[in-house]
Amino acid sequence: MTYSGGDTTLFESISNDIAEKGYSIRPYALPEDLTRLLLNHLIELPTEKFKRAGIGRAKDHMINDFIRTDEISWIARNNEASCAWINWTESLQAYLNRRLFLGLFSFESHFAHYAKGDFYKKHKDAFKGEGNRVLSVVVYLNQHWSADDGGELVIYDKNSRGSTVIDNSKITVLPSYGTIVVFLSEEFPHEVLPAKRDRYSIAGWFRLNNSIDNNIDPPS
Ligand SMILES: O=C(O)CCC(=O)C(=O)O
Ligand SMILES: [Fe+2]
Asked: What was the ipTM of the complex prediction?
């Protein structure tokens, strides 16, 4: 599956949103064939492929039941659905680099499963100055999600003002089938409210090439 031309309008909308406000929420926007392929793949994934998600990286990695309780499975190019997904993210990356000069260099992503009661408390995906994750992407694979099912993504936008109503700075997203959320990783704290039924998603991050710090040439 390739996405050479068909997604240009979508990529343009995402790009404009990012330039304007730093995030983009596009309900039901992931191409239907790709969404279905990913959901079918996810349903067939044996449960042992999913591991409790941790917080922090490498040696600081730990599991913390107070912060997040979901299970994840990292995505690699080893099946049709994952290849189609990575191809799509590569097209998005190329588009955003062309339009916004973001210098996105690499991408990593995982499937996530939040069982009933699972959550991910308020956090940021990256911290300023660490030069790691630049742009977060989340897509949802849940058919017929309703407001009663919980599991909303809440994004905190410190820049949204114009009212004294405190809730104005919160953006709530239902994890509905094919909905795409993209945001600048360092800018937006966010959380996943407890899901009341199984909730499936993909979360991914575009990174900069920080090989200058490490004195390593980028892989060719
Ligand atoms: O699933 C979501 O809505 C967001 C997940 C998330 O914030 C993360 O995995 O870092
Ligand atoms: Fe996150």
From this structure: 0.99
Cβ contacts of 107 within 8 Å, gap of 6 or more:
86, 89, 90, 93, 204, 205, 206, 207
> How far is it, in rounded angstroms, from Cα 187 to Cα 205?
14
User: Can you tell me the distance from the alpha carbon of 48 to that of 45, in angstroms, rounded to the nearest whole number?
Assistant: 8
Asked whether 68 and 51 are in contact (CB, 8 A), the reply is: no
Counting from 1 in the atom list of ligand 1, the atom nearest the Cα of 125 is: 10
Structure confidence by residue, pLDDT tens digits, 108-127:
999 999 999 999 999 999 97
Report how far ligand 2's centroid is from the alpha carbon of 50 (Å): 18
pLDDT for 159 beyond 80? no
Distance CA 66, CA 120 (A): 8
Confirm or reject: Cβ of 180 under 6 Å from ligand 1: no
**Is pLDDT of 34 > 80?**
yes
| Residues 126 and 133: beta-carbon distance below 8 Å | yes
The partner residues of 110 in beta bridges, in order of sequence, read 74, 203
Q: What is the CATH number of the domain that holds 116?
A: 2.60.120.620
Write down the residue that tokens 């710090």 correspond to.
213
Q: At what angle do helices 80-100 and 32-44 cross, to 10 degrees?
A: 140
Q: Rounded to the nearest 5 degrees, what angle is found at the Cα of 115, between the Cα atoms of 114 and 119?
A: 50
Range of 189's domain? 8-210
**Total tally of structural domains belonging to the chain:** 1
What tokens appear for 24 in the block? 């983009």
Q: How far apart are CA 220 and CA 208, in angstroms?
A: 15
Please give the model's pTM, rounded to 2 decimal places. 0.89
**17 domain residue, yes or no:** yes
